[in-house]
Amino acid sequence: MSSTSPLRINGLGHARHSSAGSAFSRASSASNVSGGQVSRNLPKSIKRDTASSIHSLTSPQFQLRTEYSKPKARPLRSQYPADSPERHVEYILLASFDIDKGPTMEHQYPGAISGDEHMLAELMLPDGAHLRSEDWTIFFLHKDTTEEEELKEERRLERIQRREDREKMREAARQSGNAHAVAEIEEDTEDEDEDDGGEGPPLIYVLNLVNTKQDTTAKRGAIVKAMAVCTRHPFLHIYKPLLLLALEEYFKTPHPTTLEKLYDAVNAMDLSIMPYLNLLERQILLASDGKDLFIEKFDQMIQQKMLEGSGNTSPTREAYELTRNQLPRDSHEYETRVIYNGIPIPIKVPTAISPETVGDFSIIKLIQAFSAPHASSPQPFALHPHLTTSGAFTHPIIVLLNAVLTQKRIIFLGHNRPSGEVAEAVLAACALVSGSILRGFTRHAFPYTDLSKIEDLLNVPGFIAGVTNPAFANHPEWWDLLCDLPTGRMKISNKIEPAAPTEGLRFFQQQHSMFAPSNTGALPPSASVTGQDPVGDAAFMEGVSRAIASRQGEIVLRAKWRDYITKFVRLAAAFEEAVYGASALYIGAAEADSGSDGVSGHGYVWVDDVARARELGAHVWRVEGWRNTRSYYALIQDLGVIFSRRPIRNMDVAHQIDKLRTLKLSKEESGKIYLALHSAVNSYDEICQLLVSTPENRGGLFHLSIGLFHPDGAVRDATAELLCRVKEHDAGRHFWGSLGRFAKVAFWRIWREVEARGEASDMVTSLGASDGRVGSNGGGLRMS
């Protein structure tokens, strides 16, 4: 990267699969088991399962096999390889306030960032910094890297070509029936799971610390200095303790070698043991609070590193047990250390990061800041069709969500508050509305800015900015929604651009006049049926408030918002199909509706057509306001990439699971779904896709396990085989561990029935080792 680049701110059919059948074979004992001999003949581990399923696979002793094993022939790769030329931190900046010159940039290491250094110094020294002994700010830099973009485009074209070649190989392997070859080809897709989209080069994230030291010898009685790290990693909050030490040292010894030592220390940080997770694995990890999810991948990375260091073909037991201590206590974070001035600083790096997640913030804190005043003394909003989707008393957080979705200009004002507080609010708002699905918000966000940047700010459509100067509140023409952090109130500007009726609204009004809103955004006539909450936002926010009150934590709250945004996107796709005949938000509708697996259908599931029309009508203005935004077009681009890498394309797995979850199906209809899932879900990635559609916060495997009680024996067998595949999956075993005891007893009952019929002997002997499709570490079954 050039240091002189300028910057700017800112399936029917019941075929018994050998792989699943083998799971029953490995789970069985040598003799048949009769109903009265269950406890005597079951293996010990199975006895534990039927006796106490709660601890079956969640106990630490079952998280990893007690014996070490060789890594797979094809090793895992690291997220941050040790030999990567990319640096963790690209620049260290040091600015100070001079009474005569104002904010001044003192040092930049390892080289100068060209551009307006004075502007950078102003951002590093926010308004009112001298009033506090310490303050944090965050801002983003857009670095023009033409050469980097040319190389990125070349790599992107190479990936596309490799993906096309691999797709041809996969199709040929499927036609030949070579399951092992299909599994290997699908596994290779992990190397191509990179973001092909984007609106430009990656942002440079800047974390800045400002310190004020009282000094009677100084002109103003104090010395104000700021130090910042510039990084491509969105988890920039990990550098906070290092900045504290380095800036303190600089106050004592104001010499540029302090920046050099910090730069060398952070870039020496070893993250090579962090395994690379593909898109489906990241989604599973982010939606779960299991602390040992994908711990096997860390185990394998440790083994690989040991082998690379020793040159042996296998590690010794002593060395392996010693290195096992490096396994993280929580697989959501990798624990490492940075040695600065001889002091080991513990660092926790997120294993998986969702889109629009930058820094360390609290969605719970953001919700509480605006929910408490609304709950104690609700105040009506000025009506706007895009924002007040539930009327004048729409919940403030929903108003904020609608404003971000429809690309309005949003200001977070924190008068007399630390600039770090407004920055966290901006970042939390971006992450909340993203729901790990949408993107395009942080690129147009300004976690902290001031009056001197107002012209640049107003040139950005749909910005989200954090400020501390109260003058912004007096200029409603500058913003559409003002979020006042000290008071916890939001205000819709009287200068906001009105929302004009769209063709989609008019068409929906013609087709569903009873459920369509008016041209002014008034609630539809059907609102009285649902108690003035046709959108369901009031009930949703009540659930969020209960979760916060019961201290369920950030992971649970983020999962709720992920489900909310997922539902919104699927509603938007259904609205577009109803109004315009097709939707760019749903790729693969023809394949899903073809019924190749005996089932058809795609998208969101409603109980009946009336519920469908009512809910779509309530979302008309929100959907129409979102359809012409950056996040809408970015999602279309992302969905195309996601579909091209989806292992199951001829069936909408989420739609079929939702039918089991929502509808009252006949035994024939439900049987077809269970058989189709049994037929389609076999490989490691296919099971990952299934698990993404069955998150633990929505019941996990419960609705699948209902198939164990289906009146058709073939469906029961198929469901049990499917669950057995899930049980042996690295992530699936955690979902199995949370399944209720009643379902597990039914599972083992079906296994005994299969064995009693003498079918177990016809099954192949190894699920994990037969073709390596289920367990990513290539080992055999783990019984519990």
UniProtKB/TrEMBL annotation:
Residues 18-36 have a biased composition (Low complexity). Residues 184-198 have a biased composition (Acidic residues). Transmembrane segments: none annotated. Residues 164-173 have a biased composition (Basic and acidic residues). Residues 51-62 have a biased composition (Polar residues). GO terms for biological process: actin cortical patch localization. Coiled coil: none annotated. Pfam families: Afi1, SPA. Residues 1-62, 164-200 are annotated as: Disordered. It comes from the Eukaryota. Residues 90-621 form the UDENN domain. GO terms for cellular component: plasma membrane. This is UDENN domain-containing protein.
